[in-house]
Design brief:
This protein has 939 residues and is α/β, with parallel strands linked by helices. It is built from 32 helices and 24 strands. Helix content is 39%, strand content 13%. Helix 31 links the parallel strand 23 and strand 24. Helix 20 crosses helix 22, helix 23 packs parallel to helix 24 and helix 29 packs across helix 32. Bound molecules: adenosine monophosphate (AMP).
Length: 939
């Protein structure tokens, strides 16, 4: 007869439960008995109370456990006469150990001010485990706790407190992967909070703190009251970042890309990135007014910076991303840039380019883009091998600091648990603990390729900015802060106590830093001047170009033939879904010129030709592989085994990368990611596609703050294209409009291109022009829906091989121009409604002109077209959108300029409306018929 425990494991084992599952379940039970299923709980309880081993020898059971993989160290036995009995106290001790691992952080000393308390602290007293001081000297088996197999309860407790409830509060038991958990657990317990840094490193830490404090004091005295969003209170960030960069270099990193908001940014710029402090002082004094290539510039605490530094592992390039005031939005931008850099380096292990995202405590918990960014972290199209997140947790957001005002979670970092990222809360006044967790985080990322979070718990010495009075809203906090010594002072005293340096040495360090600031040179000593780095991108061909720069977008006939065959080719034995098979068959006919080509064919040809010419293509969006409207089919799905074949990845040997991504269902973070990618890769056609165009407003921050103004504010070019399905087809308010008017309203200084192509050939040339023209400006395209399959919206081979993108298209029917008295101007799908009606009614005195590019408005082309219609007296702008939307108000001045002096342009379109479209198809049809008649002058 077997004992109960053995039978239990055996039956579970036979029923398919893995040993590691049992082990994990048992750990869970030890941590919280209520958290496991009641059947298991009863069994584990039984085991704890009376493990009956009468008829099985102790060694047999041990061997059995060993075989089923259960970590026998977890289960302690008391010895005796060939049998063993589990000691209930032993189990309590193991429970205590697990509880510290899981909840030790509730009691950790992570807040320098001592104000923060975990809202739901677990009771970790001995009594709560039915242990007492009387047990302190008893030896227990410790399971897999670091140190000897058996330790006294006192030793166990000391290790647990030092590891889990000292100045680091580690959260990692939410991670399901046992290997990751074990790894963190072993590292932490082995270190046992006694992080032994060499003297040299400790001095460097003090140097970093000296720089952090020194700069803020200097700025505070030179420019009193000027906004600088001081780092003071979170000073440990500086030695932390410096060490992280050095360690990254040692671990093989070549680039570190950083995103951060305004708090502490000037400090990072000068003390980490190596920006010359004199340049910063000049900015404070208002001297540096204009940025390179830009026209508006930006405030100093939004500015980015690039530099190279020497580390113990070799040179590392540093890039701090430009960012707006909109907190957290820069994170996905940084990740996009990192992905582009990793791809350029063929850095498949993601070890060469490291993303560092610095957050604020209120924003990291309050802003939805953080969650979106975490969600992207392991998704194929956005993977960068994990990010290092640092939260500058100064426990207050502007004037809001009460827990239940700022968030509904215990920690500001709880969102990170959704991707099972480990979180290390660390006391900002203990810079050695800060350095320790930073190195641990880097190591974790390198090993497991996942996100990891460091919650740098600190405070804000001044108000939100230096002109703010924090006592008005945070009186108790600021009474504490006033009396609290600076991180530098605390650490200086510690090093003096430990005899690492003398008080004079410490003072000299401070004086030296001040002197360095006065020299007007960079304070970052390992900065490398004029470093020629590998994989640098040359942006010079794209600088100082105009939107009229020429672009030969035609294709030779032989090239057309070659590429069109490639895009139609797929393995003979690939079973396709019947509609897709038919479509590929049609494409073959289009390739031969047997039928006219549709949108999907022309678009695919554009990508093929760009790839053939050496440009990469990255098409990312909501259902982009197939296309929302079943028109693209860039990805062919094998109907038998669900494998995929992507013809555009088989254009030629050694072709550039073609990437098509069905994106996570986010607009904000995904568009920000694509923007970041595009600002780092001018030779890639980067496209973000919305499922329906109006969804772009979920990413309005990216459009307003980056895409439309990044070049003007920061001199950063981007050739990102936005494909936004747009058109009034009776689908209701939400699926009709990509809000063309918003993009036109943002248009100025030739910042973006707003295009509404009406034929497949136009789409072809537009896509090619975006890369071939040496101009990198965002391209906003109102892409079609019904035109994808419209009988008139088709193109010929000639139009692709001989043509080019036409910013405006003249009337296509052979009307007698001298008889034309009315000219209708329009963009997009309504053109075909107008054309059909005009033909049906034989209105040969009405010409229809298409404006294919609404911004920059093609004045010259339109004027040339207009000049041919000498008798024209009536001019109309026709649009499908309501009058307050679409192009009418934003482009009216351009239309007025296009018509002869003294003429006026009339409006034909829907009446002004709050919603973009009506919800009823019948009303939609009535409106559409009326606006077409109005435009053509039909009574
Ligand atoms: P980074 O690798 O981002 O540090 O960029 C290195 C340098 O390349 C910058 O200092 C700029 O001179 C230039 N650069 C990078 N990105 C852009 C861009 N999007 N537009 C124009 N110049 C850029």
């Amino acid at each position: 007869m077997k004992n109960g425990l053995e039978a239990m494991f055996e039956s579970a084992y036979l029923s398919g439960s893995s040993a590691s599952y049992l082990e994990e379940l048992y750990e869970q039970y030890l941590e919280d008995p209520q958290s496991v299923d009641s059947d298991w709980r009863v069994k584990f309880d039984e085991f704890a109370k009376n493990a009956d081993t009468k008829d099985v020898s102790h060694s047999d059971i041990r061997e059995h456990f060993r075989q089923i993989g259960l970590n026998r160290q977890k289960i302690a036995f008391t010895q005796g006469g060939g049998s063993s009995v589990a000691d209930p106290k032993q189990v309590k001790v193991l429970h205590l150990i697990e509880s510290y691992r899981a909840r030790g952080h509730h009691h950790a000393n992570i807040d320098p001010l001592g104000l923060w308390k975990h809202p739901y602290p677990t009771n970790l007293s001995l009594e709560s485990f039915e242990l007492s001081e009387a047990d302190l000297d008893t030896k227990f088996h410790v399971g897999n706790l670091a140190g000897p197999d058996q330790q006294t309860l006192k030793e166990i407790l000391q290790r647990l407190k030092e590891t889990y409830s000292n100045t680091i509060g580690a959260e990692f038991l939410h991670i399901n992967d046992l290997t990751e958990r074990r790894w963190i657990q072993e590292k932490l317990e082995e270190a046992n909070s006694s992080h032994k840094f060499r003297e040299e490193t400790r001095k460097k830490i003090l140097e970093g703190l000296t720089a952090a404090e020194g700069l803020e004091k200097y700025l505070g005295s030179k420019f009193p009251g000027a906004k600088r969003f001081s780092l003071e209170g979170g000073d440990s960030l500086i030695p932390m970042m410096r060490d992280m960069i050095n360690q990254s270099g040692i671990n093989g990193a070549k680039e570190v890309v950083i995103g951060m908001a305004h708090r502490g940014r000037l400090n990072v710029l000068v003390n980490v990135m190596g920006k010359n402090p004199q340049v910063l002082f000049d900015e404070f004094a208002g001297k540096n007014a204009v940025v390179e290539n830009g026209s508006s510039g930006d405030v100093k605490y939004h500015m980015g910076y690039s530099n190279d530094v020497e580390t113990e592992g070799g040179p590392v390039h540093l890039a701090l991303a430009f960012n707006p005031s909109h907190l957290e939005i820069v994170s996905p931008v940084v990740l996009g840039s990192v992905r582009a850099r990793q791809e350029r380096r063929n850095d498949k292990e993601c070890d060469q380019v490291i993303p560092v995202l610095i957050h604020g405590d209120s924003a990291v918990t309050g802003q939805g883009v953080v969650m979106e960014t975490f969600n992207m972290s392991q998704a194929r199209g956005f993977y960068v091998g994990g990010s290092i997140h640092i939260v500058i947790n100064n426990q207050v957001g502007f004037t809001t600091s009460k827990l239940h005002d700022t968030r509904s979670t215990a920690y500001c970092t709880d969102v990170a648990k959704m991707v099972e990222a480990p979180v290390f809360h660390v006391n900002g006044d203990d810079p050695e603990a800060v350095l320790y967790v930073t190195r641990l985080a880097l190591e974790f990322r390198k090993k497991f390729k996942k996100d990891v979070v460091i919650d740098l718990v600190c405070y804000r010495r001044h108000g939100h900015n230096e002109a703010d009075e924090p006592n008005a809203t945070q009186p108790l906090m600021y009474q504490k802060i006033k009396k609290h010594p600076t991180p530098r002072k605390i650490y200086e005293d510690r090093l003096i106590d430990n005899k690492v340096l003398s008080a004079d040495d410490a003072k000299k360090m401070l004086d030296d830093y001040r002197d360095l600031l006065d020299t007007g040179k960079s304070v970052v000593r390992n900065r490398i001047e004029n470093h020629k780095r590998e994989f640098n991108v040359d942006w010079s061909p794209f600088l100082n170009q105009t939107w009229q720069s020429p672009a030969d977008t035609g294709l030779s006939e032989s090239k057309f033939k070659e590429l069109s065959e490639r895009i139609c080719h797929y393995p003979k034995d690939l079973p396709l879904q019947s509609r897709v098979k038919k479509l590929m068959g049609e494409r073959k006919k289009m390739a031969k010129g047997e039928v006219k080509m549709d949108w999907g064919f022309a678009e695919t040809m554009a990508y093929a030709s760009l790839l053939d010419q050496g440009f990469e293509v990255r098409l990312c969006g909501q259902d982009s592989g197939r296309g929302t409207f079943f028109h693209r089919h860039a990805v062919l799905h094998d109907q038998d085994d669900a494998e995929v074949y992507i013809p555009l990845q088989h254009i030629k040997d050694d072709q550039p990368q073609f990437t098509v991504i069905d994106s996570v269902l986010s607009e904000e973070a995904v568009l920000a990611f694509e923007y970041g990618y595009s600002t780092n890769e001018p030779n890639s056609m980067v496209i973000w596609e919305a499922q329906f165009g109006d969804f772009a407003n979920g990413a309005q921050v990216v459009i307003d703050q980056f895409i439309s103004s990044g070049e003007q504010k920061w001199g950063r070019l981007s050739g990102l294209s936005l494909f936004l399905p747009h058109g009034y087809e009776g689908q209701g308010p939400e699926h009709s409009s990509a809000r063309l008017e918003r993009f036109l309203q943002l248009s100025a200084e030739h910042n973006i291109q707003v295009v509404v192509p009406s034929t497949p050939a136009q789409a072809f040339h537009m896509i090619r022009r975006q890369m071939i023209r040496p101009l990198r400006k965002p391209l906003v395209v109102m892409t079609p829906k019904s035109l994808l399959r419209h009988k008139l919206a088709v193109s010929t081979v000639d139009e692709l091989t001989k043509g080019q993108f036409q910013n405006a298209i003249d009337e296509i029917d052979s009307l007698d121009k001298n008889k034309v008295i009315r000219i209708v101007m329009c963009s997009g799908k309504v053109y075909y409604d107008l054309l059909e009606k005009r033909r049906e009614q034989e209105l040969n005195n009405v010409a229809i002109i298409r404006i294919e590019q609404l911004y920059p408005f093609p004045h010259e082309e339109v004027k040339e077209i207009m000049a041919q219609y000498k008798k024209a007296k009536e001019f109309v702008w026709c649009q499908e959108e309501p009058q307050n939307q679409g192009a009418w108000y934003c482009s009216r001045h351009n239309l007025d300029e296009a018509v002869p002096n003294g003429s006026k342009v009339d409006y034909a379109g829907r009446e002004a409306s709050a919603a973009p479209a009506v919800g009823y198809a019948s009303i939609h049809n009535e409106q559409q018929a009326k606006l077409v008649k109005d435009a053509l002058g039909i009574k």
